[in-house]
Amino acid sequence: MTIDQPAAHGGAAQPGGASDGAGGFVGAVTEPAIPRYATTRRTDPAGAADELAAALDAPAQALVCVFGDPPLLRADGMAAALHARLGAGMLVGCTTAGELCPEGYAQGTLTAFALPASDYMVATALIENVSRAGPEAAAQAVVDAELRLRRMGAVIDSEHCFALLLVDGTTRAEEELCYALQAALGQVALVGGSAAD
To answer: pTM above the 0.90 mark?
Structure first.
């Protein structure tokens, strides 16, 4: 599920929204920095978003990834609250079958990590219908993300870049997608993988 995809560093917003059978690719260019992490068990949208935003220092983030218990992440008003409080940079999210948080494995939480805008540049690409998308769609996603990163002044190489994949685990096409993405990325590291949806 994509919560939102506004372009980073002053670019125009791009439409977001839930997409069944989708895979997301996030390219980030970095200097050494420590990502921030946060977890909340709050179920009210405003309270959950406020708690995450305070812990993450949300206005200073290039990317916030939120992982959550499906009923909690899909609750009425949750996406809007998260976008309002965490959407200064790029905001993506996906449901989980359990969350890895600072206290260990948990369920019934919203857990997030953030990459600081002072040290990271981020671009996203959405691959629709992963189970039917071929290697050409993966290659185009990489080309599109790299182009946006270069426009921000990024150097695209294995020393400064990585790609983060969040793909719908119900597609049964994750391995093929990973292979196609890595082939297009060359020496740039690919991390991540299956998410609940």
So the answer is: no
Backbone φ and ψ for 177, nearest 5 degrees, come out as -65, -45
Dist CA 25 CA 177 (whole Å): 11
Q: Give the DSSP letter of residue 172.
A: S
C-alpha pair distances (Å), 25 with each of 22, 78, 90, 147: 10, 23, 13, 13
pLDDT-above-90 percentage for the chain: 34
> pLDDT digits over 74-85, tens only?
999 999 999 999
State how far the Cα of 189 lies from the Cα of 43, in Å rounded to an integer. 35
pLDDT of 196: 60
Residues 6 or more apart in contact with residue 62 via CB below 8 angstroms:
8, 9, 28, 89, 90, 115, 116, 117, 120, 121, 122
Q: What are phi and psi of 128, to 5 degrees?
A: -80, 150
26-39, pLDDT tens digit by residue? Answer: 554 445 567 888 99
In whole angstroms, give the CA distance from residue 11 to residue 165.
22
β-bridge pairing 61-68 and 90-95: parallel
Contact 122, 30 (CB under 8 A): no
Rounded Cα–Cα distance for residues 136 and 69 (Å)? 33
